[in-house]
């Protein structure tokens, strides 16, 4: 492969996203009090930039290295996931001006930098670039508590950044380098532990999850969906980059933290009545499965099959979780009480939500079943038997609220009057398409396997 094509694959996605952000802001500069920003145009420009970045990310599937940067199989595949996760958000968002699409592109630039980072400094810059636009997007949400949640998100994110920075300093003291390579001694392990804690902050792992339910609940549903899929994919990649540097005690703790996260998220979600908060705790539980996949990948010497399980899980979760949050947007429902009797009042919407919930629960033949099976199989191969048992228990607990919501819709009597369903046909078609993909991916998992094999 020529150096030009390699450079396109390595830096092209970031260049495309940057050009898209500049174009969106340039359109906004032309607006006046009498001439509003053409929202359709800025959304089209943002979507075009993401699609171009997605195409360029497929140009150099083989390992590429350059000063400060590198692109390998794991980074390239995760990049495709979080770029794809941004498309439904851009399509369905109602920006009002050019700023929200530009912020989404800015956050994607940070994620793309994490995917292409070749040393710890580039990872830190990517982490901050990803996070700062996310704080602003939360603050611009329509919920009255959005500003409070954004402040909480900012301080939690700042704590994660500080942990990463301190860990990076310890790593440099031990290794005299910021390369993505193991650092010797206790100081090196301590530095790695701090940086992994920062990644777990971003992933929403227990006990570093305290900010996540409030932020997800206060965000617009489509934005919360992007956080649960795109940002989690980038955080899982960050965690994998760091976990791959250790074979010591830090790596031994990760599977137990994953099992605790799965169990805690599922147990607390059982008690939730507000749907967006319930899905926030559900996303915490699913973060545990991602951590378990990363731990299995690192314990097996960073095997390609374990990386494939993580890729499949994140790809399936994009459809399941992204579709469920978007369903909240198009249905305009917010509590479990409103779900009662929905199967008779809005049968089409109830069926779509049921499919998405069954996929999140991991019931066959949906993509959620195949995704959890692959993660559990890789954990078994890695010898993580006890954490695997706890994760299985967490999966059983989660059936309580996923199947409980299906029961609410089909077996309970309505208790509240519902307003007329919104007439937005295109967003409803998008949610239905995501639900169909969640089933098709379960029936034909080789579609992702083929994509994974092509990337290799």
How would you summarize the topology of this molecule?
Blueprint: H1 3-29, H2 39-56, E1 64-66, E2 69-71, H3 73-92, H4 99-116, H5 120-139, H6 146-175, H7 185-203, H8 212-218, H9 221-243, H10 249-269, H11 275-299, H12 304-331, H13 336-339, H14 342-345, H15 347-361, H16 367-381, H17 385-411, H18 425-443, H19 446-455
Antiparallel strand pairs: 1-2
Helix pairs in contact: 1-2, 1-4, 2-3, 3-4, 3-9, 3-12, 4-5, 4-9, 5-6, 5-9, 6-7, 6-8, 7-9, 8-11, 9-11, 9-12, 10-11, 10-17, 11-12, 11-16, 11-17, 12-15, 12-16, 12-18, 15-17, 15-18, 16-18
Structural class determined from secondary elements: mainly alpha
| Counted beta strands | 2
N-to-C span: 14 Å
Q: Helical content, roughly?
A: over 70%
Q: Describe the main β-sheet briefly.
A: 2 strands, antiparallel
Strand content: under 5%
Indicate the radius of gyration in whole angstroms.
Answer: 21 Å
Could you name the ranges where pLDDT drops below 50 across 5 or more consecutive residues?
none
Q: Whole-number average pLDDT?
A: 90
**Sequence of strands across the biggest β-sheet:** 1-2
| Helix-strand pattern | HHEEHHHHHHHHHHHHHHHHH
How many helices? The count is 19
**Net shape:** globular
Question: How would you summarize what this structure contains?
Answer:
By secondary structure, the protein is mainly alpha-helical. The chain contains 19 helices and 2 strands.
Please explain how this structure is put together.
The chain has 19 helices and 2 strands. The chain is mainly α and 456 residues long. It has a two-stranded antiparallel sheet. α3 (73-92) packs antiparallel against α4 (99-116), α11 packs antiparallel against α17 and α12 runs antiparallel to α15 (347-361).
């Amino acid at each position: 492969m020529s150096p030009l094509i390699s450079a396109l694959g390595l830096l092209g996605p970031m260049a495309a996203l940057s050009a898209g952000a500049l174009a969106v802001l340039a359109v906004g500069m032309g607006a006046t009090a009498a001439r509003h920003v053409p929202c359709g145009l800025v959304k089209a420009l943002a979507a075009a930039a993401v699609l171009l970045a997605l195409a360029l990310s497929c140009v150099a599937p083989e390992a590429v290295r350059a000063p400060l940067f590198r692109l390998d199989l794991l980074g390239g595949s995760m990049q495709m996931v979080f770029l794809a996760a941004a498309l439904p958000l851009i399509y369905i968002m109602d920006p009002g001006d050019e700023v929200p699409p530009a912020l989404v592109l800015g956050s994607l630039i940070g994620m793309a930098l994490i995917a292409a980072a070749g040393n710890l400094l580039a990872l830190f810059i990517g982490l901050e670039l990803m996070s700062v636009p996310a704080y602003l997007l939360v603050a611009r949400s329509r919920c009255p508590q959005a500003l409070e949640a954004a402040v909480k998100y900012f301080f939690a994110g700042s704590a994660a950044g500080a942990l990463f920075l301190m860990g990076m300093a310890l790593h440099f003291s031990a290794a005299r380098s910021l390369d993505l390579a193991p650092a010797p001694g206790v100081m090196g392990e301590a530095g790695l532990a701090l940086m992994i804690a920062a990644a777990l902050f971003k992933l929403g792992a227990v006990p570093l999850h305290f900010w996540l339910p409030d932020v997800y609940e206060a965000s617009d549903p489509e934005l919360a969906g992007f956080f649960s899929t795109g940002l989690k994919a980038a955080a899982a990649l960050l965690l994998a980059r760091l976990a791959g540097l250790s074979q010591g005690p830090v790596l031994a703790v990760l599977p137990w933290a994953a099992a605790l996260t799965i169990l805690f998220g599922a147990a607390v979600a059982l008690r939730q009545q507000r749907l967006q908060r319930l899905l926030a705790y559900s996303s915490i539980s699913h973060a545990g499965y991602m951590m378990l996949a990363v731990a299995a990948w690192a314990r097996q010497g960073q095997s390609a099959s374990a990386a494939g399980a993580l890729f499949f899980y994140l790809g399936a979760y994009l459809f399941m979780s992204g579709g469920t949050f978007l369903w909240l947007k198009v249905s305009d429902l917010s509590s479990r009480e409103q779900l009662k009797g929905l199967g008779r009042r809005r049968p089409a919407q109830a069926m779509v939500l049921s499919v998405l919930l069954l996929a999140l629960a991991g019931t066959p033949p949906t993509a959620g079943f195949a995704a959890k099976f692959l993660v559990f199989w890789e954990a078994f191969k890695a010898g993580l038997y006890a954490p695997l048992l706890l994760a299985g228990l967490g999966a059983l607990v989660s059936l309580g609220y996923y199947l409980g919501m299906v029961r609410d819709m089909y077996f309970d009597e309505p208790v509240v009057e519902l307003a007329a369903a919104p007439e937005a046909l295109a967003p409803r078609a998008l949610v239905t398409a995501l639900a169909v993909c969640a089933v098709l991916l379960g029936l034909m998992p080789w579609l992702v396997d083929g994509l994974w094999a092509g990337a290799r």
